[in-house]
Amino acid sequence: MKKIKSIAMIIIVLSILIVATGCGDSKPKLNVYNWGDYIDMDVLDQFEDEYGIEVVYDTFATNEDLYVKLKQGGSSYDVIFPSDYMIERMIREDLLVKINKDNITNFQKVGQSFLNLEYDPQNEYAVPYMWGTVGIIYNKTKVSQPLDSWADLWDPQYEGQIVMYNSQRDSLAVALLKLGYSINTRNIDELEQAKDELITQKPLVKAYMGDEVKGAVVSGEADVAVVYSGDAVTMIAENPDLEYVVPVEGTNLWFDSMVIPKSTQNQEGAEKFIDFMTRPDIAAKNAEYIGYSSPIPEAVELLDEEVKNDPTAYPSAEVLEKTEVFKDPMDIIKEYDRIWTEVTSQQ
Amino acid sequence: MVEKNLNKLYMAIIFLFLYAPIIILIVFSFNDSKMIGNWNRFTLKWYIELLRDREVLKALYNTILISILTAIISTVIGTIAAIGIYNMNGLGKRLILNLNYIPVLNPDIVTAVSLMTLFRLFGFQFGLTTMLLSHITFCLPYVILSILPKLKQMNKHLAEAAMDLGATPSYTLRKVIIPEIRPGIITGALMAFTLSIDDFVISFFNTGHGVSNLSITIFSMARRGINPVINALSTLMFIGLIILLLIINKRADKNTLKERG
Question: Which residues of B touch A75 (CB under 8 A)?
Answer without folding.
Answer: 125-127, 208-209
